[in-house]
Amino acid sequence: xxPDYWSEAxxxxxxxxxxxxxxxxxxxxxxLVSRGDPFATLARSIVGQQISVQAADAVWQRVLVxxxxxAPETVLQLGPAGLMGCGLSQRKxxxxxxxxxxxxxxxxxxxxxxxxxxEQLIATLCAVRGIGRWxxxxxxxxxxxxxxxxxxDDIGLQRAVFGHYFAGERQSRAALADFGxxxxxxRSVATWYLWRSLDPLPVAY
Length: 205
Description:
mainly alpha, Endonuclease III, domain 1, 12 helices, Endonuclease Iii, domain 2
C-alpha cells in the first residue's frame, strides 16, 4: 500500500515547487510500495550489485531455488558451499552469509527499526559486509518507506535534479544537498518523482 503520508507530501511539494508539481501531475495515484521482507530485500540488493538488472534477476531466481524457505537460517544451514553454482561471486556469497548471521545473532532486528532514526538505521545496516550507504538508503526508501531520505550519491537523482533545475549543468555534492533542503520533510517522495521523470515505470528496489 502507498504510505499514509503520501497525500500530504504530494500536496506540500506541489504547492511549494512548481517544477515538482508538474512532475507529480504526470503520475496521479502512484507512489512507493514496500517489497516487504527485510531479509529478502537486502539479500536481493547484494545479489544485484554491479551487474545488469537482467543478470541479477536470473541469479536471484537460482538463489531462490537453493534458499527454500528464503530465510537467514537457510543461508547459514547451507553454508557458503550451498550457494556455489548460482552465479554468485565468492565475495557475494560471503556477504549473504554475513547478512544472515547478523539477522540470526540479533544484530539486525526489524522490530527495533521503527524506533531508530534514519542515520542510526543506515549505520546499523552498513555494519553488514556488502552494504554501503547507497544500498542502505535505498532500503530505507523502498522497504521501510522512510519519508525523508535523500540519496546524494544516486546517479539517477543527480541527473534528474540537474536536468530539471540546473539546465543539465552538474553541481557539487554539497550544492545538491543544500538544494534538497527545499523538499524536507518529504525528500524520499521528491526523489521518487524525480526518478520517475527519467523512467516512466515505477522505480523498484
